[in-house]
Design a protein that fits this description.
The structure holds two protein chains of two kinds. Chain A is mainly alpha-helical. Chain A has helices spanning 6-9, 30-47, 54-74, 79-88, 93-106, 154-199; strands at residues 49-53, 114-118, 130-135. Chain A is elongated, with a radius of gyration of 31 Å. The chains are: A mainly alpha, B alpha+beta. Chain B: Residues 175-198 are annotated as: Disordered.
């Protein structure tokens, strides 16, 4: 079995791709659509966190992921990869960022490079699905604070201790009950044993 | 039959007499003519009634010709459950945010938390863009707030980083560790608030 693993030769998206088409209407047609996506990918690489409509974000995310994975796989000395980066990044200083900042950042990452989170829907407005698209490892405050799941949070430490204490006291209670229960069972058995011969 | 023939004959005679007399004497003498007023007028041209006669210079609005059915009226009013349902429907997917306690839709970011994060993000974004401008970006960015030093890490860790300084204190909710202060400092203002006014 000296065959190469095909999945490792082709860069594979690490995000789910939905089968439904994403409507991105543009008066210029497919060309305008790609232009729009190029702008979005450029903005994502530049600002690292952007808020936009779902369809556009979902579509641009795939291109951004592919771009980063290509960059990680081939490096900056690979002509086709450089061409792709040149095409997708409209501001050329971002090409440096892609290879010098993002590649080292994501080299050892086993999951996808971007996050797509649904933004809160404002009340009494048209229901446009807004999402926040961000690169992982950005310098901004986290959108999803998982402090409540953090085991080292002081409240969680105290709660864990309290739970442990409560459990220990319950166990002790149960153990006591079992001990007492056994003695009572024994007494009953003795009584029964003493009663039985008298009846017969 | 005979009567009819006689009648026809007399009719012809009368006609002949009338023609001869009229041609010879110019009709009956005018002195014997009956004097009367001619009531019969010549028929005038009757005008048909036109819509212009009623409205004149005004305008006429379009009006419905037929009554709308109940189904159509109700669908317009309440919508259709299969397509667009216009009535208010309670939302069953509201959750309480574990950070701030505000309500938000499940599967979405909390509105209250996101507002704070968004504002802070935009500020940092501006600072970063200001600093980096149009230079080629080859270094990662680290954000430091006022009164913060670089965390204890070997110098090699900080080598390829660009430091962005925010000219304010780090927000309480954006803390990296538990040792960050989480309560407000007692105020130093000496203003005395009036009490027992009512």
């Amino acid at each position: 079995m000296n065959q190469a693993d095909v999945t490792k030769l082709v860069s594979k998206l690490r995000i789910p791709v939905h089968p439904e088409r994403r409507k991105l209407r543009n008066p210029k047609g497919p060309e305008g659509r790609i232009d729009k996506l190029r702008k979005t990918v450029t903005g994502l690489i530049k600002y690292e966190r952007i808020e936009l409509n779902y369809n556009r974000a979902d579509e641009a995310r795939q291109y951004a992921e592919r771009l980063i994975s290509e960059a990680i796989q081939h490096g900056d000395c690979h002509k086709p990869t450089m061409d792709i980066a040149d095409y997708w990044l409209l501001e050329k200083e971002l090409v440096h960022k892609l290879f010098k900042v993002l590649v080292p950042r994501y080299e050892n990452l086993n999951s996808c490079y971007t996050n797509l989170l649904k933004a809160p829907r404002p009340q009494n407005t048209r229901n446009i699905e807004k999402v926040v698209l961000e690169l992982k490892g950005n310098p901004y405050p986290p959108l999803r604070n998982k402090q409540s799941n953090n085991k080292l949070l002081i409240q969680n430490v105290l709660l864990d201790a309290a739970k442990y204490e409560y459990r220990q006291s319950k166990y002790a209670e149960i153990a006591d009950k079992i001990g007492k229960g056994e003695t009572t069972v024994d007494n009953n058995q003795k009584e029964k044993v003493t009663e039985k011969p008298s009846q017969s | 039959m005979i009567n009819l023939r006689i009648y026809n004959f007399i009719k012809i005679l009368k006609n002949v007499e009338r023609i001869i007399f009229q041609n010879m004497f110019g009709g009956p003498p005018k002195e014997l003519a009956l004097a009367y007023v001619n009531d019969k007028r010549t028929p005038e041209h009757v005008k048909k009634l036109s819509i212009r006669d009623i409205i004149g210079d005004g305008i006429l609005l379009a009006v419905p010709k037929f009554r709308r059915t109940v189904e159509k009226r109700w669908k317009r009013k309440y919508g259709s459950p299969e397509y667009v349902w216009k009535m208010l429907v309670p939302k069953n997917n509201i959750k309480v945010c574990s950070e701030c306690g505000h309500h938000h839709e499940s599967g979405r970011l909390c509105g209250n938390c996101y507002k704070k994060v968004e504002m802070e993000t935009n500020e940092i974004k501006e600072k970063i863009q200001e600093k980096l401008a149009k230079t080629p970006i080859d270094k990662d960015v680290i954000v430091l707030y006022e009164g913060e030093n670089l965390p204890d890490q070997p110098n090699e860790f900080w080598k390829g980083k660009r430091i962005i300084e925010m000219k304010k204190e780090r927000p309480q909710w954006f803390s990296r560790n538990l040792l960050q202060k989480s309560t407000q400092q007692p105020s130093t203002s000496t203003d005395v608030k009036p009490t027992d006014l009512a």
